[in-house]
Amino acid sequence: MLQDKKIVLGVTGSIAAYKAAELTREFVKRGAAVRVIMTGNAAEFIAPLTFQTLSSNAVHSEMYPVINDYNLAHISLAEYADIMVIAPATANIIGKIAAGIADDLLTTTVMTTRAPVLICPAMNTNMYENAIVQENIMQLTSRGYLFMEPGYGKLACRSEGQGRLPEVSDIVEEVESILTVKDLGDERIIVTAGPTREPLDPVRYITNYSSGKMGYALAIAGRRRGARVVLISGPSALTAPRGVTFVSVSSAMEMKEAVMAHLKASTIVIKAAAVADYRPATRLASKMKKQAGPLTLSLERNPDIIAEIGKKKGKRILVGFAVETENLIENARAKLIDKNMDLIVANDVTQAGAGFGYDTNIIKILDRNGGQVELPMMDKIAAADRILDRVKDIIAEKGRK
Ligand code: C5P
Questions:
Q1: Tens digit of pLDDT for each residue in 212-230?
Q2: CATH number, domain at 38?
Q3: Does the beta carbon of 321 sit less than 6 angstroms from any atom of ligand 1?
Q4: Residue 157 falls in the annotated catalytic set
Q5: Active-site entry in 15, 28, 157, 378
Q6: Ligand 1 within 6 A of CB of 322
Q7: Is the domain of 117 the same as that of 233?
Q8: What is the pLDDT of residues 142-187, one digit of tens each?
Q9: What is the DSSP string of 187-229?
Q10: Residue 292 lies in a domain
Q11: Is 335 in the pocket of ligand 1 (CB under 6 A)?
């Protein structure tokens, strides 16, 4: 979350400036305080009042405003910022920063701040590809300025190519990531997520209600904290998170294969997927025909992926989930021991605000020493962070590091 984070957003004169309004709104929605600096050209594209209203703060643009309270804006904003974001950033602003020019409020604030500066270019493809712009970006990158690559697609100048402002959701995620302490930088995490689909014939399958949200949240939280993450996901409506290796699978057998292929390189395995325990014994090559009377399906057991990992986990930390509708703790504890997990996350899906499809969860985290952390309802990213905190504790206890 960006709760109480202080963001100084620089908006420059690109047609994508209107998207900075949405960006401001998203930052504010996540609890951040936003101060907007607009260049003179930005104010030609979008009215300062828009940002003033969305950020509930006055918009800064003048270097020498007539003020009662003597507080130099470029110094105070530079010191105020936990992060500066320039979105959209034109070729001009990038060039000015690279050259050390400080002739307006935005460039002087960038020059003064010690906070990380994230620059999100948006411009015509030819401008972006121009060697001068590219050299400026390289030079600024080597000096520690952070850049996001512009996206491909249709541009305002009616051409198509690279130059679109990165998606607002991606910019927000990048800011979240930059502001997160990298305490899992040495870890390589496999996360499984979502349901599996067990095919019966070419048009039918058996599945469950898992949405994938808890697993995706774990992948996002792990990546923000610096881990390299492989997310192995069954069918889900969610978009693959930025910055993780995404492996899409369908059946439990495919999931097992993908997990085993990545197991060797991993240090932590978190199995949040709702893997089907059974699959149809035969997958028909053509569509099953209706018949008179009832139909009995023959199912066979799927491999228990986590139990197999448990047998050869070595020094890896293994985390499982127990989704139950009754005797939650007893069932979870039995699975924790039987499958040689280090932690199990117990999830009573009968409670409102917990389990499949929700953005929140109510979890209990059980360890092998009989310890149990009971957490109140919280959003799934926050819950993911608490799970990762417990993983860190176990790593410390086991003395791997
Ligand atoms: O299905 P069960 O409740 O035993 O699932 C507990 C844990 O085992 C979960 O973490 C789930 O991802 C994992 N599991 C698995 N392979 C299966 C079934 C479950 O890895 N075939």
A1: 999 999 999 999 999 999 9
A2: 3.40.50.1950
A3: yes
A4: yes
A5: 157
A6: yes
A7: no
A8: 999 999 999 998 888 778 899 999 999 999 999 999 999 999 999 9
A9: -EEEEEESB--EEEETTEEE-----SHHHHHHHHHHHHTT-EE
A10: no
A11: yes
